[in-house]
């Protein structure tokens, strides 16, 4: 096998170290727990070198051949230039007799090869495919930290991955060990978006245009327009000059013209003027989102901004501004040009401060939690102490509480809500997206949830490239990294745990999304906003993760077999005893999931048996397995 050709060797997602599989009874079986073929592509290594239908055929050969690293280029840049850029980073392309080990799994010894985007370990000497050969693949972008330890004439490299697994490579030869470590560090640190794997990945089962237009804003607007005429679709940001982090089209009050929007944008941080986030069909209330107003120390005003917010309220009606900063932080922001909406200028609005961490404190909390989870020698008292001190569950509780507040204002108080923090691209989106999952049953379906992610996270301008540049194990000092999207996924998992029948998708989808946000074969989470994605031509040159997930044969793998449509609002418990550690994520590479996988398979079998009492019985047993008393029943309205 030619290593350069390995760049196409993926059936869909980030190649987070999966074992090459051998056919057994007509099925693929993998040593590294088969979480998800989208995350862990199965690379068959039988005699015929056959591959799943979703992968291109791999040529025969040896991974000892020279590495042409770049594979196929599907962009305008010169192939030779790109090849040179990658090849200069690879000091040693192949090493024999490398032993790879991972906690809880048998070690594998073989030939290690490095390409521009992958590590490949083949158990067959020389890398030639033979019957029974095992191949292990790892997307280099998934590497978060490289640690090396030398002992005599050999060395050990520890790879801490962004998906939280930890791998060890025992390499004979001190020079080879240093070269391999240096190569991995260099390749995993490539920051150019257009040099990342999604621009090279070409699965046979997908077309480039698929998935990018599954959730157009126009369709979402039509659903709103069928219920009210008070909103319109504006193209004021068509050229990204009004707001560089908003999409080209936004939903705004019908009574406000584009010129007013442009003036209001100049009064908001980064141009993020108030736009519609959610229309609550039950009572017609709305949720808006924006960034902080630029009132500054002199309490500047903007008539257009006041008019925009006044338009969404009827005479005598009140609205709530949920500020995700503390009152003190908002006051300090005013001294540097930011601030809050003064009561004198916005008399119908009441401000509520619900501080949520978004920067370094949140990143450090994530890092401390992962470090504690990896410490298998800790006593129970020590473990509980570290769990509490990292404060991750406190962040989950705070996020859920704030989202519940926004949902309560709309559903029970029948009041309009505006959510913002400082920049409006982090905790703001966390709250608006979570509130919609709580309020709207359509956002709890698989398709609706993906549409929500597209609308409230990706198009809304969450800076994925900055926030997900590093995961929990990087030795670099946190800069702009922060696991806001992971916090959102954790909160959704808490909802699925408390309401096991109400979400159509399973935990598997949430794990898939987490892995893809940090390292992916798809372009869905690339860049920081729509403007950057347009400049990099992401939609023209990469595949969409949504296209993969929406394939019928893949979609079924992410469905919750217990799902039953629930048209009601779901109100989660946010008591401390109700918030649990997401073990399926934080312990998935530490503890075996075999028993849990078998349990879910049994649930699937019972549900498909058509026994009218099966789902009810399974639900009761599942509820009893949850330690939280609040999860015994669905606390729904």
UniProtKB/TrEMBL annotation:
GO terms for cellular component: cytoplasm. One of its GO terms (biological process) is negative regulation of autophagy. Residues 624-637 have a biased composition (Polar residues). GO terms for molecular function: protein phosphatase binding. Residues 611-637 are annotated as: Disordered. Residues 211-586 form the Myotubularin phosphatase domain. SUPFAM superfamilies: (Phosphotyrosine protein) phosphatases II, PH domain-like. PROSITE patterns: PPASE_MYOTUBULARIN. Transmembrane segments: none annotated. InterPro entries: Myotubularin, Myotubularin-like_Pase_dom, PH-GRAM_MTMR6-9, PH-like_dom_sf, Prot-tyrosine_phosphatase-like. Belongs to the protein-tyrosine phosphatase family. Non-receptor class myotubularin subfamily. This is Myotubularin-related protein 9-like isoform A. The lineage of its organism: Eukaryota, Metazoa, Chordata, Craniata, Vertebrata. The gene is MTMR9LP.
